[in-house]
Amino acid sequence: MSLLTLTDVARAYTTRRGLLGRSTEVRAVDSISLNVTAGRTLGVVGESGCGKSTTGRLMLGLERPSEGSVLFEEQPMPAPGTTEWRALRKRMQLVFQDPLGAMDRRLTIAQQVEEPLIIHGIGTASERAERVAALLVDVGLRADQAARHPHELSGGQRQRAVLARALATDPALLVCDEPVSALDVSIQAQVVNMLTDLQAARGIAMVFISHDLKVVRQVSHSVAVMYLGRIVEQGDPEALFADPVHPYTRALVSAIPVPGPRRIPRIVLTGDPPNPADRPTGCAFHPRCPVAVARCAVEIPQLRTMDDGRDVACHLAEPQARMAA
Amino acid sequence: MSVTTAPVAGSIGATRRKRTKVPVLVIVALTWILGIILVALLADYLRPYGITTLDLRSRLQPPAGFGGTVRHLFGTDELGRDVTSRLVVSIRISLMIAIGATVIAAVFGTTMGFLAAHFRGWVEQFVLMLIDFQASMPFLILALSVLAFFGNALGLFVVLMGLYGWERHARISRGLAIAANAQGYAAAVRQLGAKPLRIYLGHVLPNIASTLIVSATLSFPEVVLLESGLSFLGLGVQPPMTSLGNMVGYGREYLTRAPWILLAPSTVIVLTTLSVSLVGDWLRDRLDPTLS
Description:
The complex is a heterodimer.
Chain A: E1 2-16, E2 23-37, E3 41-45, H1 52-59, E4 67-72, E5 75-76, H2 83-88, E6 92-95, H3 109-119, H4 125-138, H5 155-167, E7 173-177, H6 185-202, E8 205-209, H7 213-219, E9 222-227, E10 230-235, H8 237-242, H9 247-254, E11 304-305, E12 311-312, H10 320-324
Chain B: H1 2-20, H2 24-41, H3 43-46, H4 83-119, H5 121-136, H6 139-150, H7 154-163, H8 166-182, H9 185-191, H10 196-232, H11 244-251, H12 260-287
Helix pairs in contact in B: 2-4, 2-12, 4-5, 4-7, 4-8, 4-10, 4-11, 4-12, 5-8, 6-7, 8-9, 8-10, 9-10, 10-11, 10-12, 11-12
């Protein structure tokens, strides 16, 4: 069952250069369709500025899409700030990249974890205290750390506290926006393992936004690769990382550090990621693509389903059945 | 386990002790403020004479110990009015104006700042326009015109003084609230489903209170001085009522012959504003749990 459905969602921002400059439209996210299934993890990868975080914010209803629709449990997402939207926060939560910034530094960990329960009127004071204690155990914090302030904890412990707060209302959906990129590598592994354990135990659907392909591969049941606001390839993580079809995904996968000698050569992309305000015509990737043909500069490739069930947006990727014919 | 937890517990105890220890200077300042407030509250019982009672035979009498008598402890002014009595009543009036005005400025400014930060759009533009108007208009001219048109009641004067400095609070609270809304704790709490009132009063206000308190302790002395200035121009507190600024203003003419008329209220102004600043600084540190 699909918990969250995004259909042809776009988010455009208008910017203006200077006082008299012409206003230009930046499409941070452009006609994206995604499905999040209950109890599964969707990984979203891409380089900085490709619209990953905007996609996460659209999923949570923190921003209104300029085009397209966002459905949560078959219901349209209410406008941010409305009573229905606030009530829906109980069902979906966000885990932030910077745990220190996401916490009120004047309150103790226990007070912050209790806050969503107070906001949504869950339980009596003693029930809430019990629940907070149980949550802290679940995320691996010690009982004495409940009375600490955020600045007295380490980065990993803070992220655990943020997670406990997000889980307090038993949400059905958890959007993790770069949850481990601010942590050092040894702590990253701990937090990632804890996330997958908690997800399995509670059956939460998770959207894992990251630029770290190894982590995404480890946690995801399905992966979407984004480039300049569009999904270029989407499918099963094992198949996608083992045999990437889209040239951009190929370049990304070849950049994953591997121990020992490389089996596949490293593809180094030339040029910088283009400015979203001035997107190239046709396929946005064609100026950097090593295999681009004339058609790529003219026509925007649409997502098409390959034989193994994955979706690819590239003119050169043909379903094998057709290639064989 | 016990080996690792023992020093942690010890260090927590140490920081608690360090925090509860109040610096001597702050104790002195707090005592002074408390004394001033007591004087203001008990002014009617403390003053030995009425503030308009003339003693024409002992005009311009120096304070006790400088050639004066114990009858007029801080001397008398040019009309033989007792400086002690006038000082006591002046403290009450000035303190009332300064505290009232600072509170009005802080509450009004912070509210405007939060409204601007929350609604953005035209509400923010309107508030910013008011701020710019306030900042570009010399306040003295504004005060002059208001007092000239509406007359001079004490209540109106307090409200007018309250308008002074509100734009600083509005700017600070708007900026900090926008910053908190954009990425920090306020966005997180909003994302938890909290109502705006809970976000602004429960989270943003306590977090920016330290900055606002410092700002208020800055504007408190300014209000005292502004009140003095206006009273000196004859637009503030009107005789026969008296205030600290009023006393300084009228005592100026006798600076060379009877400096005590001016020195007594001046000393009170300096010590009070200094004390408020010291206490504000100390409060700022106390209110911040990350500093210990």
